[in-house]
Amino acid sequence: METESKFLQKIQTGRPLISDGAMGTLLHQRGVSFDQSFDELNLTSPALVAEIHREYIEAGSNMIQTNTFGANRYKLAQHGLEKRVGEINTNAVELARRVVLASYKDVLIAGDVGPLGVRLAPFGRVQPEEARIVFREQIEALISAGVDLLIIETMTDLYELHEAILAARDVDPDIPIVASMTFTRDDRTLLGDDPAKVARKLKEAGADVIGVNCSGGPNQILRILKQMVQAVPTGKFSVMPNAGWPEQVAGRIMYPASPEYFADYALAFWQAGACLIGGCCGTTPKHIAVMHQAIENAPPGKGPNGFSLAAVEREEAPPEGMQPTQLADKLANGRFVFAVEVDPPRGLTSEKLMAGSSLLKEAGADVINVADSPMARMRMSPWAVCRLIQEKIGMETVLHFPTRGRNLLRVQGDLLAAHALGVRNVFVVMGDPTAIGDYPDAMDNYDLVPSGLIKLIKQGFNTGVDHAGADIGQPTSFFAGCALNLTAVDPDDEIKNLRRKVRAGADFILTQPIYDPLAAKAFLERANEEIGGLKVPVLIGLLPLVSARHAAFLQHEVPGIEIPEEVQARMARSGDREARTGIEIAIELIYQIKQFAQGIYLMPAFNHFDYAAEIIETTREGN
Fold first, then answer.
1. pLDDT tens-digit series, residues 225-282
2. Pairing between β-strand 337-342 and β-strand 367-370 as defined by DSSP bridges
3. Contact 112, 151 (CB under 8 A)
């Protein structure tokens, strides 16, 4: 067919075709509610749809997409329109054709086919053959009405996209097909497929053009495009990014990427291998216009000769969930960090903990450590607490991860769970023995010591394999910490264990509470000398004293804590100012610790978040 070969010929000419941008974004901006069927507007408000088509053509689009993204039986049924599939799709094509004819420009019409809005088996109840029938119904209407090509877009499931391609080939084996997937922040599809696999599968399925659309902004799309091109070097590729990740502002959905931002990326997409470039959610005719202009102004030839990707490549970042954590960033940049430990609640109520975490955030804490069953006492899972704090308070957490009580299966499953919940800072410890806690007869075994778990995390999971060397799908990005006792009874043994942890890949160190900074500094200097350079940042533990009795208890009953006699005497002389004296001592210690460590690991006793907040506010000044 002439129209089919016309599209295929155009994408061979060197310069990429420019498609249009968002339809739904502009319809909503012009008063159409998200509760309405945008596809029905082809029948009820054709002038509104036609106006948007016209604006994109004037902006420089060589191809426009029909207003049929949701015009399949399943989605139209939500509005009682399931019997009007043929009518809505046919009218959409005729409407687009009238606008093209009126423009007197050479513009192609792509029949837009979106997801069905239902899950296919085995993840849903709709069987593949049922999905193919529904796709065929819509595609038959589009092809019969005379589209130049099909664009099957914003797909999250490769199996669903495969059924759509098969349906199209059933209707017309020669119709050109652009098959486009969307990706989440971690550069994977919603079902976990990476760009390379997607590209290969779409090529095998018979797509003429392999596409990525929606997802995030141009930066992420460029990164995904490069992976696709590397996987299928002979393929043709399409990119249609969102105008950044959407944000809700004053009840409105806003997209941050400006039209000007898209100009350089149009050239970057072309140079990276795209033959079809457009926009998705949040993009407007202005975005299309700057991309069209950038392509038109580029030197002739196969690609934008002389164009440098240096500017946009500097902006490229790892996918969401793979960037360094905020804690890692701060430590790498030499910031003095304040970490504060909290205990999970004993029951279901987390309001007090959330309030305390909010106070700590306001005071300037950098991260909140969540303990795991401290003193072997039953408490809420720290995974849940970390997730609650990160979601409700918007503050990064460190998950305490004891090896005690976990076999290899549970250790690895729990690590995957933590990463899936967005918790990527982990503090590896042995854990308290169950004999001292609520359930002294509970199982107390373990398969890994802390250095072994750190090795599993850093040399296994973070490289994409489990303890047995099996592929886990994609690497994790944990930032793993280890424990250190600066007042150990056997310093030689403590330094030997520290060496093992550092060699295993420990990223940071949290210490037991100290009250003698000179002794702590001397221990670190010795460890540095014996290990041959301790380059791992150290956060010194600090437990503010609340009373003389508290100090006595720590000194005589808690292993690993040494409180100098002068500190105990000072607390004893405080009278009714015991808590205030404890805060003053902590502040004095921090100013001394700042001279030789990179942070403080505060452990407020008895949930005295207010004490911790005051200490942070006082000592953070000047940072």
1. 999 999 999 999 999 998 876 555 445 555 567 888 888 899 999 999 999 999 998 8
2. parallel
3. yes
The answer to whether 430 touches 450, Cβ cutoff 8 Å, is yes
Segment-wise mean pLDDT, segments of 10 residues, the chain, 623 residues: 70 89 92 93 96 97 97 96 97 97 96 95 89 98 97 95 97 96 88 92 96 89 94 95 66 66 89 94 93 85 49 53 86 95 89 92 95 81 93 94 87 92 93 70 78 94 92 91 93 95 96 95 94 92 94 86 93 93 96 96 91 94 55
What is the Cα–Cα distance from 299 to 77, expressed in whole angstroms?
A: 49
- What is the spatial distance between Cα 137 and Cα 115, in angstroms, rounded to a whole number? 14
- The Cα 273–Cα 106 span in angstroms is 23
Residue-level pLDDT at 349 = 84
- Phi and psi (nearest 5°) for 399? -90, 125
d(CA 79, CA 412): 46
The 10s digit of each residue's pLDDT in 337-373 is: 999 999 998 888 888 899 999 999 999 999 999 998 8
Give which of 354, 367, 391, 423 is closest to 616, Cα–Cα: 367
Strand 274-277 versus strand 252-254 pairing type: unpaired
**Per-residue b or e along 191-226, where b marks 16 or more CB atoms closer than 10 Å to that residue's CB:** eebbbebbbebbbebebbbbbbbbbbbbbbbbbbbb
Q: How far apart are CA 518 and CA 592, in angstroms?
A: 9
Q: How far is CA 57 from CA 8, 20, 285, in A?
A: 20, 8, 8
pLDDT at 302: 45
DSSP, collapsed to helix, strand or coil, labels residue 480 as: strand
Kindly write down the DSSP assignment for every residue of 218-261, as one continuous string. Answer: HHHHHHHHHHHHHH-TT--EEEEE-SSS-EEETTEEE----HHH
Q: Are strands 237-241 and 367-370 parallel, antiparallel or unpaired?
A: unpaired
How far is the C-alpha of 428 from the C-alpha of 419, rounded, in Å?
Answer: 15
Residue 208's contacts (CB-CB under 8 Å, 6 or more residues apart) are: 8, 149, 176, 177, 178, 236
Confirm if 96 and 71 have CB atoms less than 8 A apart: no
238: which strand partners?
211, 276
**Alpha-carbon span 356 to 411, nearest angstrom:** 29
Written as six digits, the tokens of 105 are 């420009």
Rounded Cα distance, 297 and 286, in Å: 17
145: three-class secondary structure by DSSP: coil
8 Å CB contact between 460 and 466: yes
Alpha-carbon distance of 330 to 525, in angstroms, equals 23
Number of helical (H) and strand (E) elements in the chain, helices listed first: 24, 18
Rounded Cα–Cα distance for residues 139 and 164 (Å): 9
Q: How many residues does the chain have?
A: 623
* CA-closest candidate to residue 548, choices 563, 533, 560, 527: 563
Q: Is there a contact between 21 and 285 (Cβ–Cβ < 8 Å)? A: yes
What domains are defined for the chain?
Answer: 2-315 (3.20.20.330), 335-620 (3.20.20.220)
Phi, psi torsion values for 41, nearest 5 degrees: -65, -20
| pTM assigned to the model | 0.69
